[in-house]
Design goal:
single chain; alpha/beta; Rossmann fold; Pnp Oxidase, Chain A; 2 domains; nine-stranded mixed beta sheet; seven-stranded antiparallel beta sheet; elongated
Length: 499
């Protein structure tokens, strides 16, 4: 297709300091005359120019960067791989030279990765990703298996909220959320990445990264925070993973926290053709922690996939260093190296934001999912537990974390968000039967307390539940009579154990 035939999504989008013109034949020729330099360019993808770098010859390897990184932060991995293969790195949409709004779905990143491979005519490729990049690589295998020969996914956060987090991880998530709501995005992103790259034995790779890498992460803070939201709650379901037929290696670092190792094994178990691989000396930042072992893993996958294709009678395509004219705006150049103050008021504002509109937002649901698992194990204060009740629509058990108010020898649950919350509706629809989980399962009946008896119970609830005192508009130290004015709007249930 010529440039004149290009549709709206194929036409060049003028960006800051970028030429919208397609590459000249001379530019492409010069790129081939300088084999030691990276060929750089821009691929058009639905209104965004995706910046890419291309090195080496042979089997194509697409390196999909994790949160807070770009094409230029893979360190020596690209050079090592370029000795034996054709390496493609790129800035994902919303990052650095691929300037655009932050992406809110994994599928958008997946589509961009597919566009790069198609436009550079470098398929079938090996998709390699770490962290958020690993989630995209797996999703690419699900959606476009025709573009790939194998996948290496290092510590993808598949179904992360189903695994009990460490206390340090929960503290980091809470802090980054608090920073985000105050629009301190750079600090929030640093909190996220410092925690993500932490080692099992203590410390974090973040502190050892080159300052240039940390600067790039801070400059792309918003995109990194969206990657976090996407990767933990926006991933391929198990039913789709079960259809995969491509070889997939789910790797994890020997120094990574144990819950990260567990979720890696869970992902591999969901894919019929997957295997797990531990990388010695590595944590979450495997390309940085253990460069040689990480490269060796990829080349092993490359060799085994080539053997499999030879057995199948397939032939690997020859190298191709540029896309069809009219699709890529390329520059034949050496790759660039980067392109209430205090008190409880901020915490209260953050808590209100989590439940703005009377419903938990995506971050609140993520945090609740983590607490559900923690409380179910028996950990946490005596007044917390996990409540399980049958969903009135799905018919499946629904779990949420709860704070139990104790008063005069009885125990109670209070709906801090009022009468219309899902769990209250589910309890009523289930005939007031539920299960409390706290290291074991206890069947209970939740008896609704009459309005005229609720005031002292709601007062007690506000004294023990920090979130309750934020959402219920009466000071916890006020007399019970003041709670009578709002009692009708906050359902209260007495917990009766069933034998």
């Amino acid at each position: 297709m010529s440039a004149n035939d290009a549709g709206p999504s194929d036409r060049a989008v003028q960006g800051p300091g970028r030429s919208a013109a397609p590459p000249s034949k001379e530019a492409v020729h010069l790129a081939h005359e300088r084999p030691d330099d990276a060929l750089t360019g821009f691929v058009q993808a639905d209104g965004c120019q995706l910046y890419y770098e291309q090195r080496g010859e042979g089997v194509p390897i697409l390196l999909i960067p994790p949160a807070g990184t770009t094409a230029s932060t893979w360190g020596p991995v690209t050079g090592e791989l370029a000795r034996v293969a054709q390496v493609i790195t790129y800035d994902r949409r919303g990052y650095a030279r691929s300037a655009d709004l932050p992406v809110r779905t994994v599928s958008r990143h997946t589509s961009d990765a597919a566009t790069i491979l198609e436009h550079l005519a470098t398929t079938p490729a090996i998709a390699v990703g770490t962290s958020a990049g690993a989630t995209i690589a797996v999703d690419l295998a699900v959606r476009r298996p025709d573009l790939l020969r194998a996948v290496v996914a290092h510590e993808a956060a598949w179904r992360a909220i189903r695994h009990v987090p460490t206390r340090a991880q929960l503290a980091s998530v809470t802090r980054l959320a608090w920073l985000s709501v105050r629009k301190r995005h750079e600090e929030a992103a640093e909190t996220l990445l410092r925690a993500a790259y932490s080692y099992r034995e203590g410390g974090t790779a973040w502190d050892a990264f080159p300052e240039e890498w940390r600067r790039i992460a801070r400059e792309n803070a918003r995109a990194a925070l969206w990657d976090f939201r996407n990767s933990i709650g926006n991933h391929p379901p198990a039913a789709q993973l079960a259809t995969l037929r491509l070889p997939v290696v789910c790797s994890y670092g020997a120094r990574s926290p144990r819950n990260i190792v567990r979720l890696t094994h869970a992902l591999a178990a969901a894919i019929p053709t997957a295997r797990t691989q531990e990388i010695p000396g590595a944590g979450h930042a495997a390309p940085f922690d253990a460069t040689s072992d990480f490269v060796h893993l990829i080349t092993d996958v490359m060799t085994s996939s080539a053997q499999d294709r030879a057995i199948d009678g397939s032939r690997a395509p020859g190298p191709r260093r540029h896309a069809p004219e009219g699709r890529v705006s390329a520059v034949a150049s050496r790759a660039p190296t980067g392109s209430k103050k205090g008190g409880t008021a901020p915490i209260e504002a953050f808590t209100r934001w989590l439940y703005r509109g009377g419903r938990p937002n995506s971050l609140a649901r993520t945090l609740n999912g983590a607490w559900v698992r923690v409380f179910a194990t028996g950990r946490g204060p005596a007044m917390v537990a996990t409540l399980e009740v049958v969903g009135r629509r799905s018919g499946h058990p629904v779990r949420l974390p709860v704070v139990i108010a104790d008063l005069a020898g009885e125990r109670y649950l209070v709906s801090m968000l009022g009468d219309g919350t899902n769990w209250v509706r589910n309890v009523r629809a289930a005939g007031h039967r539920a299960v409390l989980i706290k290291g074991g399962r206890t069947p209970v009946r939740l008896e609704e307390v009459p309005v005229e008896q609720r005031a002292p119970i709601i007062k007690r609830y506000c004294q023990v539940a920090t979130s309750g005192r934020v959402h219920i508009p009466v000071d916890p130290t006020a007399p019970a009579s003041e709670f009578e004015t709002i009692a009708a709007g906050y359902p209260v249930f007495r917990i009766v154990r069933l034998h």
